[in-house]
Design goal:
Elements: H1 30-41, H2 44-62, H3 82-104, H4 106-111, H5 114-117, H6 125-153, H7 160-188, H8 191-208, H9 220-226, H10 230-243, H11 249-274
Helix pairs in contact: 1-6, 2-3, 2-6, 3-6, 3-7, 3-8, 3-10, 6-7, 7-10, 7-11, 10-11
């Protein structure tokens, strides 16, 4: 009698999936946003340029012109002063400086290898860019608040809607557009050169875009060039509530177009940087 050989087959192990589950919103979350914001607030150099520089520029350039009117109505009779005009321009300038610096700080992350670590996460490139843009915008808000407080403390009087509309325009447009510009430069330029490049770009765009003197006073050729710069549309929209100028939709189209260009370039640069082996 032969014993029947019995074989036992071990159960097949569960198949392991190597696919990463993509979290909601591409990985965007408030915790990551909070970390980004805290890192930026710890940078004393950034805070110095965000709060001190635009206020100092307003006090040096705008405050001495507090009694000069930008229109036919004298300041003493309720007209808007040149100081108010410059205050808004400096708020925009402070916003784009702080936003660009916040964005370009990504170059430090690249040098430390942080962007390569993001390859191990399911973070969507667009969600990563959005997180940094929002953090940069919140930092840019400090520049507007600081400059407006300085203006109010030195005698500038505007209607509540003028303060609000000018501040919102400077913040939403200026911070969004120039945070993405800073991110783009930060992903493309080596860390040791990023600050120099972004500072040169911002100063040049601010001069040619009419933040330091009216576009109308420029040469005709420069006026045509200025209309296509990202600063021009933002500055015109932010100053419109105090100058009484009707909103030109080309200004808004200008800002939106540059924002789209910078976002597209930043997403492309982010993907290229995180895919490097």
């Amino acid at each position: 009698m032969t014993a029947a050989a019995t074989t036992t087959t071990a159960p097949a192990p569960d198949r392991v999936s190597l696919d990463r589950r993509v979290p909601p919103f591409g990985g965007f979350n408030l915790t990551f946003l909070g970390i980004e914001l805290k890192r930026k607030l710890r940078n004393r150099r950034t805070l110095l340029f965000t709060i001190v520089f635009p206020v100092a520029m307003y006090l040096l350039i705008g405050y001495p012109l507090r009694d000069e009117s930008i229109g036919d109505v004298p300041v003493a009779q309720g007209g808007v002063s040149v100081a108010a005009y410059i205050m808004v321009s400096m708020a925009v300038y402070g916003t784009i400086i702080s936003a660009t610096a916040a964005g370009s700080a990504v170059s430090v992350e690249r040098a430390q290898g942080w962007t390569r670590q993001l390859r191990l996460t399911p973070l969507n490139p667009l969600a990563g860019v959005a997180t940094k843009v929002i953090a940069g915008m919140l930092l840019g808000l400090l520049a507007i608040v600081a400059t407006f407080i300085a203006g109010a403390a030195t005698g500038i009087r505007l209607a509540p809607e003028q303060w609000i509309l000018s501040g919102i325009a400077a913040w939403l447009l200026g911070a969004a557009v120039f945070t993405t510009l800073g991110l783009l430069v930060g992903y493309l330029v080596p860390g040791e050169n990023t600050a120099q490049v972004t500072n040169l770009v911002v100063v040049f765009l601010s001069f040619i875009g009419g933040l330091f003197y009216p576009i109308d006073s420029m040469a005709p050729v420069l006026q045509q060039v200025a209309a296509f710069t990202p600063v021009s549309g933002i500055g015109q929209i932010a100053r419109a509530p105090i100058t009484g100028t009707d909103l030109d939709w080309l200004w808004l189209a200008n800002a939106i177009a540059w924002l789209a260009i910078f976002v597209a370039g930043t997403v492309w640069a982010f993907r290229r940087d995180t895919k490097r082996g």
